[in-house]
Structure to design on (131 residues):
């Protein structure tokens, strides 16, 4: 290498590493908690109620009914569990927004780190042949 010193990455203190780790944990917690806080996670549930539930009216065959009974359930007790349906619908616009944020984050990080990338690439692949 002609006069170019080898790349030396910045050195981070132990305190800086601890702060970074705690910050990442806080950001993950916030990221996972905010959708719940703003009621954006999940579409909820719907429950079908039957006045006099039987295993047949709940759509359970004899084998399934036998397993429910082994667990200590009667048709009346199991009706609430069997009749509850989760809403798995989602908004394509929010999926696209999430994808745009992730792609935007990587573009910003790549541009921000461009100088360091160039220094490392120049150090390892500067065109001179080794050996």
């Amino acid at each position: 290498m002609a006069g170019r010193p080898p790349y030396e990455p910045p050195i981070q203190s132990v305190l800086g590493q601890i702060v970074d780790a705690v910050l990442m944990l806080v950001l993950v917690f916030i990221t996972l908690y905010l959708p719940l806080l703003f009621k954006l996670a999940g579409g909820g549930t719907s429950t079908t109620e039957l006045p006099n539930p039987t295993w047949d009216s709940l759509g359970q065959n004899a084998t399934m009914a036998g397993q429910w009974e082994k667990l200590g359930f009667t048709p009346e007790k199991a009706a609430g569990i069997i009749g509850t349906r989760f809403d798995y619908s989602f908004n394509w616009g929010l999926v696209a927004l999430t994808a745009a944020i992730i792609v935007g984050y990587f573009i910003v990080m790549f541009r921000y780190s461009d100088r360091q990338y160039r220094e490392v690439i120049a150090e390892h692949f500067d065109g001179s042949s080794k050996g």
About this structure: The chain has five helices and two strands. The two ends are 13 Å apart (CA to CA). The mean pLDDT is 86.
